[in-house]
Automatic annotation (TrEMBL):
Family indicated by similarity: Belongs to the oligopeptide OPT transporter (TC 2.A.67.1) family.
Membrane spanning residue stretches: 88-108, 115-135, 194-214, 276-292, 304-325, 331-354, 463-483, 489-511, 523-539, 575-597, 648-665, 725-746
Cellular component terms per the entry's GO annotation: membrane
Protein's recorded name: OLC1v1021117C3
A Pfam family it matches: OPT
Keyword field contains Repeat: no
Topological category with respect to the lipid bilayer: Multi-pass membrane protein
Any one of the GO BP annotations: protein transport
Main localisation: membrane
Molecular-function GO terms, alphabetical: oligopeptide transmembrane transporter activity
Entry keyword Nucleotidyltransferase: no
InterPro entries in alphabetical order: Oligpept_transpt, OPT
């Protein structure tokens, strides 16, 4: 019954989360000759010839109803193409290893750089073609099996499998690197002794657990046509640009491949400026120059330590750092994020800080990830920590209560609202359909052309995924017994974490698969276990990993499964590629981290490091702060009765209520199609991730997405259809190539420039408090 209920939720998702740009397409489809674009066949035939027409199964009523997908994803398939070849294995494992090494290495830097799989997606193409041209074609036989190093031309399906393996090096080592973050916090911040085997189990079980969730939910988040995963379209567009040739009759201007190469080269050359020669372009805070002696002006205008009003970035890495590429996010999703961002940064925060002095806000910087004492100084956690890494209550009472910067505190409160709003939104907008169609939803699945083409391949049995799921759960429970003192999380806490992940992965997956936004519940996971196990920061970290981070990895695996669905990769080949990539990535991820923790002096210790050291670990600092807030000090002391931040708990109720008026209005005015597009969980996502994300990161993301997915989409639809996703891929690739080159050729050798343009932020007063009587080194006294 439960899977049927869930599937109906997913099948109904398109009704209320249909991408806003489709409204503009409605008047365009009948007149634009571009919509008659015929997806080219993906085969080993002569690429200069006209592609064959789509199969008869792709009639108009069977095409994907999501226009972006119908325009970008090929509707043909060649099942004869070899997939799991020697080339795919060799290049896939090599790409995976290189990416996980680079992403793990860069994640510790002051300016983190996540290198996407696009770097390898581009890099392996000439290598694959070279191998196809040089490797022997001789077949080797073994009983009934035969094998060849060179089955023919390097094809698009091999390329997809290689990229899927490489993507494991991004999802595990890049982004926020959650499991490695926990291990880093345990060893670098808490100075805890931890065995390599225990750390390896933490890394691998969280990955495999996520893979198990993905296998259980693939019927609901991969197969339905409404679950279209917008971020995959950039990958599909790039694959086609690399392997197909535009028809001469339709190629006006640059072909997609030419366009990609031109803009990748431009992005590569340009990133030398913000990446090395002129870093101030990453965030340009001109307000601070106009008012160099005003604390308030610098708090408002600083891009790094303030609200970033008037600040801007000319750095693609800064634009896409935290929400991904804005070019692949639907406009209606960008609009929702914009509404939440403007409300939070330009209305709520200024009122709370300057007008009402909420939570004694003016005693602290307006924007900071640091923790503070009641006197406005930085909080020293070692003074309240026991040798067993638990809270010393008497020392805490003698020292000081814990205080947060106002933006940090309100960002936590927004997480409360976001969690309940997600549950409420899904229940209201999809509850009726779930109730009415729960028994027949799975049987009445409408198959589009892509699903029909995939039926020609053997599916992965569910028990393959169940083995991984059960195995990872068993190893996790074993760890809680064998290394009980190290992990602090008892076996029942593990089971509680698994249950939480199972409940929330699906509704969050619905939102991500349709809006390209992922509402988080990190705060809720830590809030819950903080009440159950107060004073245990390591237990809090581990609960977050198993209860929340396994969901993030599950969604990453599901996105890759949808990519395989679009590119017609045999499901069993996808299973093997993802599983092997996950295991290799986990081992290399931990090995690199372990080496860095043991060989780089004072890694992540900002106080002990040289001022010019790049190893300040800003992302892991936030992870450590969260363990202190929710684990060491505990939510009861901060958010319970008598706690300074107790009123933020009301946001749980507010978040649950906010979707109700939207739902009521959608029923009263059914002809107003824009009303259901108001998505409260996505609106609340406009102020998620700050810190470490800054308001300028998010504002630049919004502006760029608006330009391309509203104005360009509306007024230059032909250009958008042909080049938008290719441009996103080109910017990612060029930036990543230059970032790697700059680091190993210059920055790693200590060849750093020192001049006015290399100072990241000319706003020294932005970190100062504004309350009278608070004394902070480097800040003018306030009377």
């Amino acid at each position: 019954m439960f899977p049927s209920l869930i599937y109906t939720l997913l099948a109904a998702a398109h009704v209320t989360t249909s991408p806003y740009p489709l409204l503009f397409f409605s008047s365009f489809l009948s007149s634009s000759p571009l919509f008659s674009f015929t997806p080219m066949a993906v085969s080993s035939q002569d690429p200069t010839k006209e592609p064959p027409p789509p199969p008869s199964s792709s009639s108009s009523d069977e095409r994907c109803p999501v226009e972006e997908v119908a325009l970008v994803v090929p509707e043909t398939d060649d099942p004869s193409l070899p997939v799991m070849t020697f080339r795919a294995w060799f290049l896939g494992l090599t790409s995976c290893t290189i990416l996980i090494f680079l992403n793990t290495f860069f994640i510790f830097r002051t300016q983190p750089l996540t290198i996407s799989a696009i770097l390898m997606q581009i890099g392996v193409l000439p290598v694959g073609k070279f191998m196809a041209a040089t490797l022997p074609t001789r077949k080797f036989g073994f009983y009934k099996w035969s094998f060849t190093l060179n089955p023919g031309p390097f094809n698009i399906k091999e390329h997809v499998v290689i990229t899927v393996m490489a993507n494991c090096g991004v999802s595990i080592g890049g982004g926020d690197a959650y499991s490695i973050g926990a291990i880093t916090v345990m060893k670098a911040y808490y100075k805890q002794s931890l065995s390599f085997l225990c750390a390896l189990l933490i890394v691998l079980t969280t990955q495999i657990l996520g893979y198990g969730w993905a296998g259980m939910l693939r019927k609901f988040l991969v197969d339905p046509v409404e679950m279209w995963w917008p971020s995959n379209l950039a990958q599909v567009s790039l694959f086609r640009a690399l392997h197909e040739k535009d028809s001469k009759a339709k190629s006006k201007g640059l072909t997609r491949m030419q366009f990609f190469l031109v803009f990748m080269a431009a992005s590569f050359a340009y990133y030398a400026l913000p990446g090395y020669l002129f870093p101030i372009l990453t965030f340009f805070s001109w307000v601070c120059w106009a008012w160099p002696r005003s604390i308030t002006a610098q708090q408002i205008g600083s891009a790094y330590h303030g609200l970033g009003l008037g600040a801007f970035t000319l750095d693609w890495a800064g634009i896409s750092a935290y929400h991904g590429s804005p070019l692949v996010t639907p406009w209606f999703s960008i609009l929702n994020v914009m509404i939440g961002f403007v409300m939070f940064i330009y209305i709520i925060i200024p009122l709370c800080y300057w007008k009402f002095n909420t939570f004694d806000a003016r005693k602290y910087p307006i924007f900071s990830s640091q923790l503070f004492t009641s006197a406005g100084t930085k909080y020293d956690t070692t003074r309240v920590l026991t040798p067993n890494y638990e809270l010393d209550v008497s020392a805490y009472e003698k020292y000081s209560k814990l205080y947060l910067s106002p933006l940090f505190a309100l960002s936590i409160g927004s997480g409360f609202a976001r969690f309940t709003a997600t549950l409420s939104h899904v229940a209201l907008f999809h509850g009726s359909d779930i109730w009415k169609q729960s028994r027949s939803a799975v049987k009445n699945v409408k198959l589009d052309v892509h699903a029909k083409l995939m039926k020609s391949y053997k599916q992965v049995p569910q028990w393959w995924f169940l083995i991984l799921l059960v195995g990872s759960i068993a190893l996790s429970l074993m760890m809680s017994f064998v290394w009980k003192k190290d992990v602090q999380l008892p076996w029942w806490g593990m089971i509680f974490a698994f249950a939480l992940a199972w409940i929330v992965t699906l509704p969050i997956g619905v939102i991500q698969a349709t809006t390209n936004q992922q509402p988080g519940y990190d705060i809720i996971a830590q809030f819950i276990i903080g009440y159950v196990l107060p004073g245990k920061p390591i237990a809090n970290l581990l609960f977050k990993i198993y209860g929340r981070i396994s969901t993030i990895h599950a969604l990453s695996f599901l996105a890759d499964l949808k990519l395989g669905h679009y590119m017609k990769i045999p499901p069993r080949s996808m299973y093997v590629a993802q599983l092997v990539g996950t295991l290799v990535s986990g081992v290399v991820n931990l090995a690199v981290t372990w080496w860095m923790l043991g060989n780089i002096n004072n890694l992540c210790d900002v106080e002990a490091l040289h001022p010019d050291s790049p190893w300040t670990c800003p992302k892991f600092r936030v992870t450590f702060d969260a363990s202190v807030i929710w684990g060491l000090i505990g939510p009861e002391r901060l958010f319970g009765p008598g706690g300074l931040y107790r009123n933020l708990v009301w946001l749980f109720l507010i978040g649950a209520i906010l979707p109700v008026p939207v739902w009521v209005l959608s029923k009263i005015f059914p002809e107003k199609k824009w009303i259901p597009l108001i998505n409260i969980p996505v609106i609340s996502y406009g102020f998620a991730g700050m810190p470490p994300a800054t308001p300028t990161n998010i504002a630049s993301w919004i502006i760029t997405g608006t330009i391309f997915n509203y104005f360009v989409f509306k007024y230059r639809k032909g250009w958008w259809q042909k080049y938008n996703y290719v441009l996103s891929a080109a910017l990612d690739a060029g930036t990543a190539f230059m970032g790697v080159l700059l680091f190993f050729a210059l920055q790693n050798e200590g060849k750093n420039l020192k001049w006015w343009g290399t100072e990241l932020d000319h706003c020294p007063l932005a970190t100062c408090p504004t309350a009278p009587g608070v004394s902070v080194t480097g800040c003018p006294p306030i009377k």
